[in-house]
Amino acid sequence: MASIATVAPSRLAALNRLRCTIFQTSYNPTSVRTGAKYLRARLRGPSMIEYYPKQVTIAQFNRMSKGAFSIVDPLE
Amino acid sequence: MPNIRVLRDIKARNGVNANEITRRAYLYVARNQSLPPQVRYQAQLQLNTFGKYTRPTTVKNRCTESGRGRGIMSEFGLCRFQFRLKALNGEIPGVHKASW
Known about the structure:
The complex is a heterodimer.
Chain A: H1 9-23, H2 36-40, H3 45-49, H4 58-65
Chain B: H1 4-30, H2 37-49, E1 72-73, E2 78-79, H3 80-89
Helix pairs in contact in B: 1-2
């Protein structure tokens, strides 16, 4: 029995392929770039649009009060 | 009424949110080395047609009070002066003057 395991690289590659089929991971022995990282990453859009607090404009306020209050916008 | 730059930033954020998934799809095709180069090139050309209000790099954290672009502390969304004003007034929870 060899003290250091001298396993043929083909057998190691077969073992790796088998592992990937068992654990359902993707098999990429040559580390070729598949672009999967762009699909894997979480989406940043929803957190971006929640950055600024929602501000009620005067027109919105008038619409919401349905004619009860109507403030005139001095800038308009 | 917020700053014009804040309005542009809001427009960029909305555009990024709307197009994020399609951008990611094109990026995946363009950066995939196991696809033929013509397909990758066409995907990259399609990516180039997206306008600036769809790119996430155009989004910048601005001060939510004053609209300042520099000196923003992202934990509070405020520029350094607005942060100071509010903190001294006690309007930011958990922030007090340091002494140790």
